[in-house]
Every structure is written in structure tokens, then in C-alpha cells.
Amino acid sequence: MTLEEMDKQYVLQTYARDYTNFVKGVGSTLYDEHGRDYIDFASGIAVNSVGHGNPKLTEAICEQAKKIIHISNLQVIEPQAKLAKRMVELSGYDMGVFFANSGAEANEGAIKIARKYGETQFEKKRYKVITLEHSFHGRTITTVKATGQENFHTPHFSPYPDGFSYVPTLDDVYDAIDDETVAVLLELVQGEGGVQPFDKEQVQQLAAHLKEKKVLLIVDEVQTGVYRTGEFLASNLYEIEPDIITLAKGLGGGVPIGAVMTKHKEVLKAGDHGSTFGGNYLSTTAGLAVLDILSELYETGKLHETLLYFEQKLQQVAMDYNNLFEKEVGLGLMRGLRAKSAELQSSIIKNSMQEGVVVLKAGRNTVRFLPSLTISKAEIDEGFKRFETALSSL
Ligand SMILES: *Cc1c(COP(=O)(O)O)cnc(C)c1O
User: Fold this and answer.
1) What's the rounded Cα separation, in Å, for the pair 80 and 85?
2) Structural domains of the chain, with CATH
3) Residue 88: strand pairing partners
4) If you measure from the C-alpha of residue 139 to the centroid of ligand 1, how many angstroms do you get, rounded to a whole number?
5) Which of 135, 222, 275 to probe ligand 1 with, by most ligand atoms within 8 A of CB?
6) Phi/psi of residue 255, each to 5°?
7) For ligand 1, what atom is nearest to the CA of residue 104?
8) How far is the CA of 145 from the centre of ligand 1 (A)?
9) 10, exposed or middle or buried, with CB in 10 Å at 0-12, 13-18, 19+?
10) Which atom of ligand 1 is nearest the CA belonging to 248?
11) CB-based burial of residue 277 (10 Å sphere; 0-12 exposed, 13-18 middle, 19+ buried)?
12) How far is ligand 1, taken at its centre, from the CA of residue 137, in Å?
């Protein structure tokens, strides 16, 4: 039985999978079972923030695993407290942290905080959440409903929870707010929706308006967070102070972890929310190591250098292949090339894999780049060389 046969027979086929079998990774280079190398411009969808086999991260995980992997949240967990402190300090916001295991679960926590806030802080209960079209917030029933893409709200899984509505642009949020609106939930750069950043001034204006209306601003930083846009949080880059921020993907460097940060620290009380695995020794130790690595990269200016270098390369490709691409989109190391059609998008991704460079799709026609934040210039050069070879045959 081949691996592909085994997967097809025993694993539920919920993904349209590629069957390249990666067995090892070093930095931003992946190796398949035949020893062939690939430049990784995807980093497990923004998860492998410090690359593969990072010595600091793997050592931290191994050392912690030998001592203690998990006890329940009924006891205090030292790396959890330390990670929360680190995250709050890096964010610059006066917030508290709840740990979960994924982005969707972090968003569930955010919605619960908002709903309880809306139930306890006002005379008339507020519970409605406004989200943006083309957003993506997760795969649980509630976060699927929060996701502003109609095709996600399939009748298969209905009925969905009430209280979610969608607006096409930030300008439309204003009129969509009524006296039952508790929160606006948005990504500052829509990732899955097509690597589309919102305008900074528009976001700042909206944030000020929401504050005045006492409507909570929830920023889904599951993809944009942990230095992806060049700052610890995209909220830092946009110079706003959200009420609630969610994180996941890059925070554990590959170890599953999610987090909700909020300045409304008193809303959830003992018993209101919880998670068996959330914030255990292993994942929070990984998070601490990741933040050590990335905060140093940030402070030394190396992250900024990488970001500029990658951007330059991508802009060059967008110019040289303007027969294939409309434009270059994104921020920091969350980037995309808007292909001229959906068909082009899929052939580019397929060709790239054949040429030994891993890229992702986003939206209907965007080729997405989410390299690890520790990627070297040599790997960037090699990746783009292979990417151009993939393009030249189209
Ligand atoms: C990936 C993603 C999620 C979902 O995260 P999971 O860990 O898959 O549950 C939610 N929001 C955004 C913005 C994401 O990019």
C-alpha cells in the first residue's frame, strides 16, 4: 500500500491534497522522501515562523518534553504565565491572555468575551457581530458563520448561530451598527480572502468610531500576528488599540497554540471558558522560544531587511511577468501576486511545486507567499529563481 493509498483509504478526504511526501526541513528548505529539495515560501500556512528544525525551538521543545508536557489548567503553569507576560509586553497593550489551541478556537473565545461583555455592560443586551466580506475566521460552526464568504455557510451544517452579518467594506460598517451590535471582527490583512490589507487611516477612523459607540473591535491576527507584517502585531503597525486580539498560526512555530488577548480582563470569570490542552507546558514553551527568536530578529533589524528584500524580489516578478499578474499585494512577509485568472493561479502553484518551490493559493486568483520570518537571502534568491522557471513555461 502506498502512502497515497493509505491516506485515501483511512484519512477523511477533507483536503484536496498534494502527495509530495516531505520528510525533513532545514530552515526554509524542505526535503521529500527522494531527497529532492524545495524552497518553502508557505511555512505551513504561516505556522513555521522560525523555519524548520530551528535549533533554539527544537531544543526548547525537547528539554520541556523530558520534564513535563502537560498538566491541567487547574494548576498554575509557569511557561504559560511567562508567555502571557511576554506577549502583553511585546504588544504594548494592557491586556490579559487566554490560551487555546487553534485560530478558530481563539476566535470562539473572542466571540464569547464579546457576547458576555454585551450581555453584562448594557441595559439592552448586545450580541451582534459584524464581519467583513472575504474574511476568514475558522472552521467551527460559529467561526464559519463569522466568515464573510457565502460559500462557507453551506446548508450542510445549518442551523448556524444567530447574530452575524457581513459588510463589503470598512465604510459600510458604520451603517451596519445598531443598538444590538457588540463587536466588529476583522483581519487587518485578509489572508485567505486574497492577502488584502485594509487602509491604515480607514481602520484608525473606524477604531475611533467604535470606541465612541462602545462597540468592541476584535482583530483576528491569527495570520497577521507574531511579526508576520513586520511588527509583533498588525495592530501595532496600524497603530490602533483593539479590545480583543486573537493569535495562533505563527505563535508556536508549529506546535498547536491559539490565544485571545483582551483589555477587558474582568469579563470572563472562573468557569466561563476553558480548554483542556490550551496553554500547556509544551505549547507555551514553544511560544516562548519563538518569541525569543523573533523579537531578537526584530530588534536587530534583520527582520526588516528580510522583509524589504522579499518585497523587492516580488515587485520585480510582478513587473517582469505583468502578462500573468495584475499586481502585487500584501504587507511584510504576508504577500501575494494577483494572477490574471483562477486557472493561472492553479497552474502557477502546480508548476512551482514541480520546480521545487512551495507557494499557496488565496482568494480566487492570488498566489500567496508566507515564508518563514527567518528565511535567508540565499533561500529567497533560490526560491524566486525556481518560481520564475515555473512562470516561464506558462
Ligand atoms: C487560519 C486562520 C484562522 C483559523 O485558524 P485554525 O488554526 O485553522 O483554526 C482564523 N483566522 C484567520 C485570519 C486565519 O488565517
Assistant:
1) 9
2) 1-35 (no CATH), 56-299 (3.40.640.10), 301-371 (3.90.1150.10)
3) none
4) 8
5) 222
6) -85, 130
7) 9
8) 13
9) exposed
10) 7
11) middle
12) 6
* Cis? peptide before 256, omega within 30° of 0: no
- Name the residue with cell 508576520: 228
Residue with cell 521529500: 32
What pLDDT is attached to residue 123? 97
Q: Distance, CA 16 to ligand 1 centroid (Å)?
A: 18
Pocket of ligand 1, candidates 249, 331, 334: which has the most ligand atoms within 8 Å of its Cβ, to mutate? 249
Q: What does the pLDDT read at residue 126?
A: 98
Residue nearest to atom 8 of ligand 1 (CA): 103
145: its cell numbers: 458563520
Q: State residue 324's pLDDT score.
A: 98
> What is the predicted pLDDT for the residue at 11?
98
Helices first, then strands: H and E counts in the chain: 13, 17
Mean pLDDT across the chain: 98
For strands 334-339 and 366-369, give the pairing. antiparallel
- Sheet containing strand 258-262, edge to edge, reads 96-100, 258-262, 244-247, 216-220, 181-186, 128-132, 164-167
Neighbours of 99 (CB within 10 A): 27
Which residue's CA is the closest to the ligand 1 atom numbered 11? Answer: 137
- Residue of 200, 217, 229 lying closest to 304 (CA atoms): 229
The half-sphere exposure of 307 on its side-chain side, counting CA atoms within 13 A, is 17
C-alpha cell belonging to residue 312: 523587492
What per-residue confidence (pLDDT) applies to 174? 98
* pLDDT given for residue 113 in this prediction: 98
Q: Which residues pair with 129 in a beta bridge?
A: 164, 183
pLDDT in tens, 10-35: 999 999 999 999 999 999 999 999 99
Q: Exposed (0-12), middle (13-18) or buried (19+): which is 195, by Cβ within 10 Å?
A: buried
Q: How confident is the model over 299-355, as pLDDT tens digits?
A: 999 999 999 999 999 999 999 999 999 999 999 999 999 999 999 999 999 999 999
- Whole-model pTM? 0.98
Show the cell assigned to 286.
514553544
Q: What are 282's three cell numbers?
A: 509544551
Residue ranges, the chain, pLDDT below 50: none
Pocket of ligand 1 (CB under 6 A): 102-104, 107, 136-138, 187, 191-192, 220, 222-223, 248-249
Cα(221) to ligand 1 centroid in Å equals 9
